[in-house]
């Protein structure tokens, strides 16, 4: 099992503020460890970059949705 991001330019996964995340997300789409990557980022509160195909903002939204589902 290998992460596709290991075979690409790491800078694509950490774009400058306002930069495009499209290329990184495209790589994540076909990655066999995408779910594990996302869970790692959520568990470790990764604040920067694309992890498991989601940006910081998207991971924050997912965290809130999960928390709301637990408290509902």
From TrEMBL:
Pfam families in alphabetical order: Whib
Family matches, as InterPro entries: 4FE4S_WBL, Whib
ATP-binding recorded as keyword: no
Region Disordered, residue ranges: 1-20
Reported cofactor(s): [4Fe-4S] cluster
Post-translational modification: Upon Fe-S cluster removal intramolecular disulfide bonds are formed.
Domain 4Fe-4S Wbl-type span(s) in chain numbering: 4-61
Compartments it resides in: Cytoplasm
Entry's transmembrane regions: none
Annotated family: Belongs to the WhiB family.
Full protein name: Transcriptional regulator WhiB
Organism, scientific name: Blastococcus goldschmidtiae
């Amino acid at each position: 099992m290998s992460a596709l991001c290991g075979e690409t330019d790491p800078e694509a996964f950490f774009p400058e503020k306002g930069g495009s995340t499209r290329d990184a997300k495209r790589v994540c789409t076909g990655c066999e460890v995408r779910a594990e990557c996302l869970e790692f980022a959520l568990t470790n509160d990764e604040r920067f970059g694309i992890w498991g195909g989601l940006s910081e903002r998207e991971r924050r939204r997912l965290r809130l949705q999960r928390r709301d589902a637990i408290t509902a």
